[in-house]
Amino acid sequence: MTLQISPRDVLVVVDVQHDFLPGGSLGVAAGDEIVPLINALAKKFSHVVFTQDWHPADHISFASQHPGKAPFETIALDYGTQVLWPDHCVWNSHGAELAADLDIPHAQLIIRKGYNRAIDSYSGFQEADRETLTGLAGYFSERDVDRLYIVGLATDYCVGWTAIDGAAAGFDVTVIEDATRAIDNDGSLAKAWADMAEAGVERVMSREILG
Questions:
Q1: CB within 8 A of 129, min separation 6: which ones?
Q2: Is the pLDDT of residue 31 over 90?
């Protein structure tokens, strides 16, 4: 049975940017495979928004800013444990641009995150200090949005955090599983799915929408 997408549903396309595609500085394996699928899904939605990772070159989450540290090691910051990443999605760089093959001209909003040097931001709703809001929940409330369908990169980080925070903000949230790809570092994917399930996030496959 095909799910019916209503005018009050929104497709949230998370961080489909060149640096997260194969060949990018933080490329997610097979991340490019989801782009045509996201384009097809977007045709079913009257509301589409993008999130975009958008960092200054000296962002605190970059391993290059911490002498002696390597990517994927962790450090302690005021707001908790921070994974250190390769430099990625530096603002105004090619790597930060949305994937060139995305074809969603009716998308209405790009919300940028991670632009504060001192705070990382996986979620489209709030930064990693769990206090600084992006305004996305307010946007959805004013647009009278009902259910969020989330796709993009990476399942176990920005997709998962966005989904959980969307549910916490009071929205019904569904992740379209095959329109995401994961980093899956040390069991992070299984943990992300478990955390999403605990938060009430649902999972579907694209065929349930596309028919």
A1: 78, 79, 119
A2: yes
